[in-house]
Amino acid sequence: MFRFRSVLLALAGLLLISVPAMAAQTGDASLLAQAQAAPLFTGLAAIGAGLAVIGAGMGIGRIGGSAVEGMARQPEAASQIQTAMIIAAALIEGAAFFGLIICLVR
Which terminus of the chain has a lower count of CB atoms within 10 Å, N or C? Predict the structure, then answer.
């Protein structure tokens, strides 16, 4: 239940932060029509970016916890476990950054 409330709080914060970012005024009528639809897309982009970051955080946290548990069970394999953990965390961060960029670019 605590995790669900944390996710809702993070999403609400992202939505509140994203609205002022798209509040720029435009003079062209065609741009004005696009600007009226922009807050919806900005909100959806913020939700997508938030989900990408939350998913990456949960994945890296799970990798770290499992790696520490594995190191505690087999201390002689700690260096191999640490190397695999760092590689997996880097891959997860890369995927999260890609999702974040895609969400923010539209």
Answer: N
Q: In the chain, count H helices and then E strands.
A: 3, 0
Q: Cα–Cα distance between 89 and 60 in angstroms, integer?
A: 6
14: amino acid identity, one letter: L
Range of the domain at 90: 41-106
23-32: long-range contacts, CB 8 A cutoff, minimum separation 24 = none
Is 50 exposed, middle or buried (CB count within 10 Å of its CB: 0-12, 13-18, 19+)?
A: buried
Does the residue 93 lie in any domain?
Answer: yes
Q: Give domain status of residue 14, yes or no.
A: no
Count of domains observed in the chain: 1
Greater pLDDT, 81 or 42? 81
State yes or no: pLDDT of 68 exceeds 90: yes
User: What's the whole-model pTM score?
Assistant: 0.57
